[in-house]
Amino acid sequence: MTFVTDHPNEQRRGVDIDAVISELQNIRAQSQQIRYRDGAIPELPSKVAIKEIVDGLISILYPRHFGPAELSPEAVIEYQRHTLVSLLLRLQRQIIKELNLTSYESDVVQLNVGRRAIEIANDLASGLPSIRSLLDKDVYAAFTGDPSAKSIDEIIFCYPGFAAVTRHRIAHRLYLSGAPIIARIISEMSHSETSIDIHPGAEIGEGFFIDHGAGVVIGETTIIGRNVRIYQSVTLGARRFESDENGVLVKGNPRHPIIEDEVIIYAGATILGRVTIGKGSSIGGNVWLTESVAPLSSVTQAKARTETFDNGGGI
Description:
serine acetyltransferase, domain 1, six-stranded mixed β-sheet, alpha/beta, UDP N-Acetylglucosamine Acyltransferase, domain 1, globular
């Protein structure tokens, strides 16, 4: 098959479509042979299905805001029950696909994969009440921390920071339970929608508020305490990447900051490495920080120094 351009200002040129497709197929086959060690090629999770599942879970968490438009108060419980059962079955199928990426050698393994998928999906379902409880504290932190917020409903509907944290709390539960690829898909979809990049491995305490949000990056091994507030373009990243004796990157080591309770980090600040920002500290805008700071510290770029103050024990 040959494709020929019909553009009036170009010389007629042909492309051998069959040759292009054949070459692509050869490259794909080589790549799959390396990844799957000549085994059966497993089916991949569906990003479309995962997005629908996450949207459904959010509608269960906040049915009045994200459920059907005409949902009556009397119908909420039945809607939640019916939707959750349907979503869990769909989620189990996606988890099976993820687990099969590394476990596809035998029928026995397939059976174990199915059982494990049920366990992971059920763990997420059982965790939904605690996720909702955390989110209510997050939205209250946003309401009390932003003078422009007129209502809780406005934050739930409109704030990208709250949307990102909502998806993170779902993704984090899946990440811990054993579905890291699906968790990462969720976090990257959230990143695309909100411009806030939170790795699903990050541990985030209650009362977390991201104001404005665009450009925020929170790395995999970050630990964030309670009642922490950060602003746009904040980076909580790694300072360096460790390698083994063969020069291969070591994965999973703690390499991102620990942010203790009641810390405020202002716009554009960059905090790198496994450093600790002490409780009640304030990190000013555009600060570049690679060292730990004591509790109740104030770090600003203009003064280029660290000082300790008493903020009354809170934010």
